[in-house]
Each structure stands twice: as C-alpha cells, then as structure tokens.
Amino acid sequence: MTFNDNARIDSSRVTRRRGGAGGGIAIGGGAGGIVIVLLFLLMQFLGGGDATSALNGLGNDTQDQTTDQDFAASCTTGAQANASADCRVAGTIQSLDDYWADAMPGLGKQLTLPGIVVFDNSTQSACGMASGATGPFYCPTDQTIYLDTAFFGELESKYGSSGGPLAQMYVVAHEYGHHIQHELGVFEVANTSKTGANSDSVKVELMADCLAGVWAGHAATTQDADGVTLIEPLTDQDVNDALSAAAAVGDDRIQEQATGHVDESAFTHGSAEQRQAAFTTGYTKGTATACDTFGVIN
Questions:
Q1: Phi, psi of 97, rounded to the nearest 5 degrees
Q2: What is the DSSP string of 274-295?
Q3: What pTM did the predictor assign?
Q4: Are 279 and 246 in contact (CB under 8 A)?
Q5: Cα–Cα distance for residue pair 108/111, rounded to 1 Å
Q6: pLDDT tens-digit profile of 55-90?
Q7: CA 228/CA 61 separation, integer angstroms
Q8: Distance (Å, whole) CA 101 – CA 295
Q9: 88: how many CB neighbours lie within 10 A of its CB?
Q10: Which residue(s) pair with 116 in the sheet?
Q11: Phi and psi at residue 193, in whole multiples of 5°?
C-alpha cells in the first residue's frame, strides 16, 4: 500500500514532539501496551516489590519540545508519506479522518476529530506519561492518539511482523478505532476491569481491530482537499502485512515470547488468531455494524 505521490498531505493534524531521554508508563489500549501489562503481572506474581511504583517512576523528568513547523515542511506530499514514517502517520490520519467523517453520520453520530501526537522517547498525556515502551495508545481523557514511530521498527525486529506500510498504518487505524469506540459510547458500557479471552477488555481491542479493517477496505477511496485519491488500491501483500502485524501483537504471541507459556486468563487484547479474524471481518464486511460487539450502533 502506497500513497499517491501527488496527493497533498495535511500534516497540521499531527503534533510532533521530541521529548527527553527515558520514558514513563501509560498503560492504554495500544498494541504495545500488552508488554507492559505482562511485565506488571509478572512483577506482581513474582513478588518483586511494588510494581506500580516501579512503572510510574520511569521518565518523570521529560520535557517536550514541539517541532510542528519543521515537521510540516517535511510532510506535504504523498511521496513524502511513502518515504517517512512520521509523514506516513499524517497521511494515514488524513485518510482515516476522511473515511470516518463520511461514515459516522450513517451510524447516527458526527465525528469529532481525535488529537494526534507523534513523539520521541516520552511525552505527557492526560492518561499519564507516554513512552516508547507502552507502544501506541489512545487516551480517552483527552481523546488523543499517542505514538512513537520507533514502534514500527519493533513490529518487525521484536515482534516478528512482516513489515510493510499497511502494517504500520494498521497500528494507527487500530488506535483511531478506539476513538470511534469513544464516539459510539463503547467505553460507557464495556467493563474493562477484567482480563481473559472472553473479557470486555479483549472485545474492545478486537472491535478496534475490526474498525481498522473497515477503514482499510475503503482506504483507496479517501481523498485530499483537492479531490486527489490519497492511497492506491491495496494488494494481497498489503493485506497480508496488516494481518501479520495483528498476529504479531496477539496476547498469546507476546506471552510466549515474554514468559514461555500462554495464560488465556491474562489476555487483554486477544490472541493472534482473534486479532487477524477481527481485522478480516472489518475488511470484508466493510461496515462498522459488523464490528458492533457491544450493540452501540442503532
């Protein structure tokens, strides 16, 4: 999946921060947050001290420097989105904005655009400190997506994803899916206090995967402000890349890597198979109604 080289990318939707060294922890709904949850549970299980204090104590001295002007100058075209991970995020957000603004009225809602923060190392969010260690996540409190694009490299090197542009764009679309859930009222009815393969926590994440698939199926129809198509039609390889990314951050895969065994009672995001199936449902069905696990769409 590539952007049309001539498409105009509006990078004004993205706040670009270059934070200090180190990182805090904000355990949210993002793909990489599974690792932190597992670390937390492992520390508690082993009795190795106060896990909450240990996690919260990381990276409290960070100061952000916003560099939106420099970012805007380097992210104006589809060609730049194809070449740069930061600009690819901006282009993906532009496509997601375009699709969901059109789709939400059909679901009985008007889209309020989420905030987007791309950062290095760590930054502050309304949900606490965000760091590269948490992975991308959505903060409902300030309705903002936070991500360090270094995570895209880790998808391949650490989690075994096949890589590819759509693998990265899937991550962004998943977090955007959490915002759509917020708009639809999912967080008002879901009980995310429990874990397990059939828990609401997992159902929330699988619904976000499904919503990412819905967008992917329509991505090639989205346009820039001049009516130029943003994204070229998906290939089979693109879809396989997204499915590979979804599987790579499955609870079972990450548990196996971190602890050597799988404990379904600790699932927070769903297995590799569940996550692939959820994305495929959204991609093939093409409508958010097919993802409506919580019955929030009238």
A1: -55, -45
A2: HHHHHHHHHHHH-SGGGG-TT-
A3: 0.85
A4: yes
A5: 10
A6: 343 334 344 444 567 788 889 999 999 999 999 999
A7: 44
A8: 21
A9: 25
A10: 14, 145
A11: -80, -10
